[in-house]
């Protein structure tokens, strides 16, 4: 399991979490995991009403056990297999896929709607991309969402990121 590189910075007046992870698969394979609803349902914190492969409105549904929360989303740009940009509720997510000698460098820039949740969001993406990495490697573990994350080290990750980000204020 590769450890992500995570920072938190002011970007055009908003705070953006920058999450970088090295994956062993080529960008085309990672792109499918980021855009195909069936793939997203195996690793991400939400399900998607439709493919995220072309600009337009859709719905992303947060899942926490039996609870579902629909959030409006708009795909602004989808350049297969290198760049995906969409809103998720009031947040904006920009995924960049860069080919490397050993696979793909995945960079997520998650611009947050408000301050104070960056450590929680970082811990969530950390767990989700752990699951993504295992899925892509052919060793799926099953999606980890909502309260289930508490059983998989989310609180420890949140505390670690909170300590890391405390120097950013």
UniProtKB/TrEMBL annotation:
Pfam families associated with the record: AHSA1
Record domain Activator of Hsp90 ATPase homologue 1/2-like C-terminal: where: 26-136
Source organism, top-level taxon: Bacteria
Official protein name in the record: SRPBCC family protein
Family: Belongs to the AHA1 family.
Protein species of origin: Paractinoplanes globisporus
Cross-referenced SUPFAM superfamilies: Bet v1-like
């Amino acid at each position: 399991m590769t450890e992500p590189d995570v920072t938190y910075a002011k970007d055009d007046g908003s705070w953006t979490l920058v999450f970088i992870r090295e994956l062993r698969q080529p960008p085309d394979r990672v792109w499918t995991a980021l855009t195909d609803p069936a793939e997203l349902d195996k690793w991400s914190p939400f399900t998607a009403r439709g493919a995220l492969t072309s600009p337009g409105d859709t719905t992303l549904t947060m899942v926490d056990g039996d609870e579902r929360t629909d959030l409006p989303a708009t795909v602004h740009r989808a350049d297969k297999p290198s760049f995906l940009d969409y809103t998720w509720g009031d947040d904006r997510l920009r995924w960049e896929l860069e080919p490397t000698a050993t696979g793909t460098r995945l960079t997520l820039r998650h611009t947050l709607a408000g301050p104070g949740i960056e450590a929680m969001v970082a811990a969530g993406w950390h767990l989700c991309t752990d699951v993504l990495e295992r899925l892509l490697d052919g060793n799926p573990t099953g999606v980890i969402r909502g309260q289930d994350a508490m059983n998989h080290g989310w609180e420890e990750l949140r505390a670690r990121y909170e300590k890391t980000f405390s120097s950013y204020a």
